[in-house]
Amino acid sequence: MSLKETLKIRRTLVFRLTFLYSIVFTVSSLAAFTIFYIVISNVIKVHTDQHLLKEMAEVFSILKSKGEDSFKTEMNIEAESEGVDNIFFRLLDQAGREIVATNMSSWKGVGTNSSALERVTQGVSHVFETISVPEKPYGARIVYGAIGSGRILQIGLSLEDDARFLEIFRGIFVPSIIIIMAFSTLIGWFMAARAMAGVKDVTKTALDISEGAFEKRVHTQAKGDEVEQLAIAFNRMLDRIHDLVKGLREVTDDIAHDIRTPIARIRGLAELELNMNKSGYESNKLAADTVEECDNLLHMINTMLEISEIEAGIRETSKGEVDLIQVIGEAVELFRPISEEKGIRLISCISDQVYIHGNVHSLQRIIVNLLDNAIKYTSTGGTVSVTLQKDDDHIYLVVQDTGIGISKEDLSLIFNRLYRCDSSRSQPGFGLGLSLSLAIVRAHGGDITVTSQIGEGSIFKVTLPR
Question: What pTM did the predictor assign?
C-alpha cells in the first residue's frame, strides 16, 4: 500500500473509530491487568504472612513443650522438610544476638532489624518486613515475634516461588493481551465499517448526483438506526430537490419561450425593414441597431439560462477524455491574430500531454473567456501567458496578464452575474463570461481563484480534478 493510500485511510472516520476503540480497550486492559496484578500480589503476600504466623505458632508450641534445648533439632527438621534455601528459623535475645539458628548457609548477610526488635520488645505481637537477600535474585519475607521471656523468634521465608508465579502470570498475560488487542482491533474495524456503510452509501449517492445522476437514491433497510434515518431523510431531500429542479426546468423553459419569442419577432421585423431598403438612412440605422441589440439581448438571456441550468445540474452534456493541450493550443491560435493586432505578447507555456474527463466544448469556453478578458484588458506592449501545471490529484490552468488589474473591492464580485467593474464598462460585454466559466468549472468538480493588483495585472487559476 502506498503512502498516499495509507494517509487516506488514516483520515477516514472508520479508522478513527477503530483507533479510539483500540486505545480505550488497551487502557482498560492495562488498568484491569494492573488491578488484577496488585490483587494477586496482595493475596500472595497475605498467604505468605499467614504461613509465617503458622510457623511461628508451631515453634512456640515446640518451645513450650520441649524447651530451648530441642529447638535447634526440631527447627532443622522443619527447615530441611521445606528446604534450607526456602526457610530459616533463628532464636534471638532482646538485643538481637543469635542464641540458636537453623542452617544459615543460604542466608548469609541476613541480619536483624533493630526497629522490629524494639517494637516486639515493647509488646507488639509480631512485625513483618520484606528484605533483599545478598547474592540471591529474589527477596525474603521476615517475621519477628516474642516467644517467652526475653526471647524473640525470627523466621525468614524465600519469596522465590511467589516471584516465579508472578513472572509466569506476566509472561502469559502480556502475549494474551496483545493477541486480544489485535483481534479486538479487527472486530472494531469490522463493526465500524459496518456501522459507517450507510454513510458511505449516502456519500456515494451524493457524488453520483453531483455528476448528474439525479435519479439515484440511497438504498434503505428496516433497521431503524440513526444511519438509516439519515438515509431516509436524505432521500426525502433528494425528492424535494428533484421537484424543485423540475420546477426550475419548467420556469426556464417558460422564460425562454415567453421572452425570446417576442425579442425574436422584434428582431425579425427590424431585419425585414432593413432588407427592404425602402427607408432612409436614419431608419435603416435604427433597424440595424435594433437587430444588433436584439442579438445581444438574446445572447445574454441564453447565457444566463445556461448558467442557471449548469448550476442546477439540469444541463445534460456528454463527457469524455479531453486533450487539454489541444484545446488550449487551438484557443491560443484563435486569439493570436487579435493579440498581435493589439501589440500584445501571447505566450503558451505547455509541455506534457494532459488528459481530463470532461466536456470539450465547455472546457473550450472556459479558456476562450479567460483569454478574451486577459487580452481585452491588457494594453499594447503587455503580455498574456497560459500555463498548464499538474500534480497527482489536480490540473491547474493559469492565465496571467499584465493588464489594468482588479481592485480588492471588485475581486469578490467579479464572478457574480452581470457584474462589471468600473474600469471595464467601456469595453463590450455583459459581465457573464466569468460567471459562466465558474459554473462550468464547478460542474467539472473544480474551482477558479484570482489574484490581482491594480496596474500590474491579474492571475486566474483554474483547478480541475484529474
Answer: 0.46
